[in-house]
Amino acid sequence: MARDSQAALVALNRFGFGARGGASGDLINAASDPRGFVKAELARPNGVLLEAPGLQSTPQLGQAVFAYQDQVKQAREAAKETAKETAKATAPAEMPPQPPADQKPALRRNLSLNTAATEIGGQMTDAKPADSAAKPEMMQPNASPPPAAKPAPQPLNVIQKTFRAEALARLQRATLVECGFTERLVVFWSNHFCISASKGELARIWAGAFEREAIRPHVLGRFADMLKAVEQHPAMLFFLDNQQSLGPDSRAGQNRKRGLNENLAREIMELHTLGVGGGYTQEDVTSLARIITGWTFAGRQGQLGTPGSFVFNTNAHQPGSQMLLGKTYEPAGVAQGEAALADIARHPSTANFIATKLVRQFVADDPPPALVARLRDVFVRTDGDLKAMATALVDSDEAWKAPLTKMRSPYDFLVASGRLLARVPEDPGRYLNSLNLLGQPLWSPAGPNGFPDTSAAWAAPEGIKLRLDIAAQVASRLGDNIDPLDLLEFAAADAASIETRRTIERAESRQQALALLLMSPEMQRR
Amino acid sequence: MIDCVENRLLTSRRGLLLGGASFAAWAYLPKFARAANGRDPRLIVVILRGALDGLSTVAPLGDPDYAGLHGSIALAADGAHPAIMLDSFFALHPAMPEFARMYRGGHAAVIHAVATPYRDRSHFDGQDVLESGYAGPGRVQSGWLNRALEALPRGERVWSGLAVGPTTPLVLRGNAPTVGWAPVALPQADDDTAMRLVDLYRHRDPALASALSQGLQLEKAASGDDMKPKPGNQVVQMRQVARGAAKLMAADDGPRIAALAFDGWDTHANEGGPVGRLAFLLGGLDGALAEFESGLGDRWRDTAVVVATEFGRTARINGTDGTDHGTGTIALLAGGAVKGGRVISDWPGLKLANLYEGRDLKPTTDLRSVIKGVLQDQFGLSDRVLAETVFPDSASARPMKGLIA
């Protein structure tokens, strides 16, 4: 029997995704050696990587989007042609019908045009607002009970299919892992360096690959390596517009009379490294923007390299040396920016910013200053060794003493529920719908600062009511075959409050008991 | 958050509906209305997150430097999509015909070259300053609108604010209880389950008890066919959120004060001119204003809508036909209570020497003065409360007079 269920709750809920139901024995294992239970995952850095059949690389996915866009364009043009011909053909009323050879392709074209219209929604393909607003709605067919007669759903295009496959792989991993500490770290870093899938088709198809390629390999590695991988990833370059930024004095800038876009440069310093107030000026923003001109990805023609892969475009790079944060960076092509990033990565403000965010995520909304200072020192001493940071966090007393008052984010809540119910998802639809409803659409935060990380953000009245509605839905589907009191044993055992236990015991049905269990403070707080 | 006494009243779902904290204060409102000369004032704050390009929304066509700076995306008085002249100098974006109509009717105004006291260019700090009402960024847990609610004199107190969306925007967070609503379609948990959970929370987690109680209550108040979400793009959704909020606020016992936020204004690349991405968003905002007007019906007469953003964008377009983070921008006022038909501006000019740090529209009006003016005229808040509590350390930003008719 559990020796210290309270510490087991910290191990499983604060650091991980909660106890798995069934025969996992998570709570008992965590109780017998809470710190060891959490740290076991840190010894398996390869376990953070995510490979699943069918998941493709960023260039492959980029090419798939280019091909899809070409196809849509052709279909649209062909449909225009057909419409013209039809108009011509129908004008004289007695004209015989078109030869069958022409009709077949026309029909096909009309079908894909439909898909195109849904996808594109006018000319706003690239604009994040139109996209972000339209997508969640399209993705929640299960949110309401099906009406009597529902039109057949559109077949998914390659972008939607990829997004769902990536989501499913991530959800399955989160449901199956033992403690979930490294998966929580993946979510943390992915949100720290977020992109938004609603930026456009490339961002949507790349969202999962970005996390697999730029985040996961470095979650237990070095911060500087993750930073470089992120800022050179096509998804980030696309999300923050750097692929459009041209050095004003570069050849391309001169020829095309276009120039800088400082979006990525600003967010690198403000959100990814130094933090606001971290000691940089507007001059530094502009300077870094110049330094990383030419950081882009190869387009569909492949003139610069394999379509959809990171490339350094010398023609777009601002020539000359640049002054950044008091240091001069001599012209060195892509190495100029890499040198700048390496320095920013080990800046004291970066150490402080990262330590603070990590403690806020795992310990408390108001991070204990002593713990932040300790983590900052680890960051400085180890030159940004993220495994050492994670270890120091688990070794700290603060993380085990702070009360479990943080709210689980919607993602944490849904994953924890799935684990407790021992349901490995086979389709990501319900999760994606629920995340949309609860204000945390997967890989699609409203801004480059990612989703919030404080209880205030996730404990809003509307959010809690929606969680209850979702919990009731889950319970009505699955409540028949489970014993809620068994699940309470798996989730919290003797760390559960008397009130929670009594509320579940006295429920009028298994379904109601399950909904109440999923909504109990033991499942909502971490 | 709600205090415990009120919570104990909520012993049944029916109790939730009739006696909930958010609407429990309705009885005070007639008194409040009488105090304000029979008016029953309402206030809606719309936050545009991402930094609105004020120079593209209300363009200073009369400024000789405007067309050159805004280049390929500049508005013009002629062409296929001419800007709508507001006076001889300023012109409104053609995607906003509803606002133009309100303006001509004297119920909409523009304040140009405004900014909060924040002078750096981080969205998130900028939004914190805009919504917290403090002079600088920092982690604060309450917003100016919530503190304004708290400051309303006893007996005339408006108890509830309405936060639209699944999370409460900072501007409305704080001690004064708020309620939230978001347009979603989901089968709901039954009343009995909800009441049992409220009971459990009340014993184990008072903060969640209060949040859930308020959430349950709002969902009933907002129900009705037109409140269900419909598929559509952001423009459709902006209208829909506004329609729902207006319906709630039009009720006799509905909230008098609401805040909502629209995202997506960070137009770094391919911003577009008379048509394009910004035009699309402005069309949504325009539609939302029209929904407020029609949804509030007779109440529109006493309503003021304030539209504000964290800062403006560069006066000169960047290298990608967009604009980067800037400083001065616009604020919009709309509503029957607004003394409109005017562009209020101490125009700084767009000559290089007049631009803030050589790149941004220089702010000549403190946004806090505008908001303080509206709060004072709508709700009778004193200079002192506005300068110390609602917008701490803002005595130098005097409330702007005469914004409300």
Describe the structure.
The complex is a heterodimer of chains A (526) and B (405). Chain A is an all-alpha fold and 526 residues long. Chain A has 27 helices and four strands. In chain A, helix 1 crosses helix 2, helix 4 packs antiparallel against helix 9 (201-215) and helix 9 packs antiparallel against helix 10 (223-231). The longest helix of chain A has 33 residues, at 58-90. Chain B has a single domain (26-187, 207-390), classed as Alkaline Phosphatase, subunit A, CATH 3.40.720. Chain B contains 15 helices and twelve strands. In chain B, strands 1, 5, 6, 7, 8, 9, 10, 11 and 12 form a nine-stranded mixed β-sheet that branches. In chain B, strands 2-4-3 form a three-stranded antiparallel β-sheet. In chain B, helix 9 (144-151) crosses helix 15, helix 10 (191-204) packs antiparallel against helix 11 (206-221) and helix 12 packs parallel to helix 13. The radius of gyration of chain B is 21 Å and the shape is globular.
